[in-house]
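Retry 2 of 3 after timeout on previous attempt. Resubmitting structure tokens to design endpoint.
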């Protein structure tokens, strides 16, 4: 049994070393004076580098929300554009502090990849886009079709599962880069392209003739998209998680970037704790007590972030509404 004891000891040492490598993210970000955030650089509405060099998008605004909470400045962010294959290694090696790149919360990513997922900020599902002229309407119409898909994604795996389950033969046409994937589709190198429905809508908006393309009704998966941090730093995980909850709760009780100052005299005890007026919620996270005020002033509540970035794409709120309105967004209590 001596070998077993040495093996256990070695595993403990590895875990301790790994934890030490990731611990102290808050201190590192504060000393650096900026947050390093991994994003998608080519997805309008979520993560997009504009021609003038500025960044826009729903995920981009959540990077800014974390920077506002930690540094008091929503603009103190260095954005790193990552491909689907690059994103998890970038987080695991510490190249980025947090990942906000349309990443689906799955069991193996949570465990084998040693990642921690904050609450999902967008509930999505995988769909298909086709050239309108093909007349394709249903999933079964894609029998024998070639389908463009990005590698290193749950999308690629879901496609294989769904087609096998339905007995539909197809030919995958795989690319690593998102731009290459949609360029190939637009040029007719594949009959259809598959990804999250939000991504299909976003990319359709920048095709040469958006009306020439149809997103099918078929949805083949659940895709809860969430911010991600590496294992080993519970404080950092708590900060990212509660920044998300702050945006949910602010929308639930209708605190906005425009009226947050008027709420500073409220008698509502939970709102007072959210806004840092009592309760020491900031100190518990290692932040200033007004961290949530900085988030709301800097980027707004969840609804404001959604309306600014995703409503123009025509994406309905659907499940991405507060639970009080029939959606799945539910903030844990600020207590």
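Retry 2 succeeded. Sequence:
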């Amino acid at each position: 049994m001596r070998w077993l004891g040495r093996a256990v000891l070695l595993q403990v040492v590895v875990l301790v070393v790994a934890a030490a490598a990731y611990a102290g993210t808050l201190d590192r970000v504060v000393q650096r004076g900026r947050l390093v955030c991994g994003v998608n650089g080519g997805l309008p509405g979520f993560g997009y580098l504009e021609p003038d060099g500025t960044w826009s998008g729903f995920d981009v605004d959540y990077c800014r929300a974390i920077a506002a909470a930690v540094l008091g400045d929503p603009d103190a962010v260095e954005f790193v554009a990552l491909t689907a294959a690059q994103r998890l290694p970038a987080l695991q090696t510490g190249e980025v502090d947090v990942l906000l790149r349309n990443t689906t919360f799955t069991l193996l990513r949570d465990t084998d990849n040693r990642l921690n997922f904050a609450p999902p900020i967008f509930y999505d599902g995988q769909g298909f886009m086709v050239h309108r002229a093909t007349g394709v309407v249903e999933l079964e119409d894609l029998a024998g079709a070639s389908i463009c898909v990005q590698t290193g994604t749950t999308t690629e795996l879901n496609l294989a599962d769904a087609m096998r389950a339905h007995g539909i033969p197809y030919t995958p046409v795989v690319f690593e880069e998102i731009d290459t994937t949609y360029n190939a589709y637009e040029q007719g190198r594949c009959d259809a392209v598959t990804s999250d429905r939000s991504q299909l809508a976003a990319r359709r908006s920048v095709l040469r003739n958006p009306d020439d393309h149809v997103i099918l009704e078929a949805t083949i998966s659940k895709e809860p998209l969430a911010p991600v941090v590496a294992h080993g730093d519970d404080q950092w995980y708590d900060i990212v998680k509660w920044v998300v909850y702050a945006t949910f709760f602010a929308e639930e009780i209708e605190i906005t970037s425009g009226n947050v100052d008027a709420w500073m005299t409220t008698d509502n005890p939970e709102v007072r704790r959210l806004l840092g007026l009592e309760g020491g919620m900031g100190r518990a996270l290692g932040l200033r007590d007004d961290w949530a005020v900085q988030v709301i002033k800097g980027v707004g509540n969840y609804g404001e972030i959604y309306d600014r970035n995703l409503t123009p794409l025509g994406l309905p709120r659907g499940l991405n509404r507060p639970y009080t309105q029939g959606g799945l967004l539910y903030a844990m209590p600020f207590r």
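Attempt log closed. The longest strand covers residues 126-131.
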